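Good morning C.,

I know you're traveling, so I'll keep this short. The sequence:
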Amino acid sequence: MNIPYHLFIALRYLKSKKRHKGISFNTLISIGGVSLGVMALLVVLSVMSGFHEDLQNKILGVNAHIIILDYRGPISEYNDIIKKLEGEEEISSFAPFVLGQVMVSSSNKAHGVFLKGIKPDMESRTTDIFKHIVEGDPDALFYKNGIPGIIIGKELSRSLGVFPGDKINIVSPFGEIGPLGMLPRIKPFRISAVFEVGMFEYDTNLVFTDMKPAQEFLGIGENITGIEIRVKDIYKASIIRDRLEKKLKFPYHAKDWMQMNKNLFSALKLEKFAMFIILVLIILVASFNIISTLIMNVLEKSREIAILKAMGATNKGIMAIFMLQGLLIGIVGTIIGVGCGYLLNYVLNTYQIIKLPPDVYYLSHLPVKMKISDFIAVSLSAVIISFLATIYPARQAAKLDPVEPLRYE
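The tokens, ready to paste straight into the viewer:
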């Protein structure tokens, strides 16, 4: 197999003579710089992707993919809406719900929460909230001794100091007007279960009960707040939403999960892009090492370059030698960086080494999600930057006058 002389010489130039060991050491530094930049970039992007996916899964585990609401307020004739939803093939399930802002009190402690009334059998097919139950019996939402059951979050349970079987009071500021003014509405509930989603916001500020007691307490009769919808493809939620709005018409409107969490996911996407740009600077710094290494190599090999030109090598051939040399440094560094990045991501994801405070980051540990698209983008960026770094030294080598180095030979 015949190897092109450009590649053969480029490979030889990666190794220097014994009296010029510094050149070889600089080559190793250049490879290490590229490797470090690639590894750091892959780890950060994988962590950002993991954070995005973990947060998305937690949000979609509690919330439906699409909700239908009425501009006028509570929905009374929702059976007609349900009949129209049954004809949609891309909808896998749906469930009516009631939602209101109330206060939970126990002993001398109180906390503001959202009370959500559900139909358990329909809710279990629409959201994953019942999969996050960690204590108690989620099926015990029925009345017991005249007191309905309720499901609360683990953080709320700790805050109030209550557990499954205990009683709490739900207080609404919107009550009846009496002789002394507005009297708050108070109703006792029995804790039937405790859930833990892993997001402090949900584990603290959301409680579930059966729809009937929620409707009675909120004073909306047989009406509901809206209808939750679960779709087969979450990334088609916006398309299905638009179609449903046209089908149901005013005064009904729909919101998909991307709309309801637009600010959060937009911020995460922007942060990931910003981190990509910032960490690419590490690879740019490594490219300067490649430039300096090639320039020193050009100075060291000036006589060899002159001999090659005297033997008929063209300027393009000389450029190709040094461009291949720099490109090889970039490729080797990229391969090492990709390998180390994958290994470090695997360790972080498997052993969950880095723990996080859930009340700050919504997560208990650092999540990692490796995407092939991130690996391809980083690898291509590193190789392209390394290749661009070779242009100036290669052009300087091509411009070398063969007469000067050989004059005193």
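Safe travels,
E.
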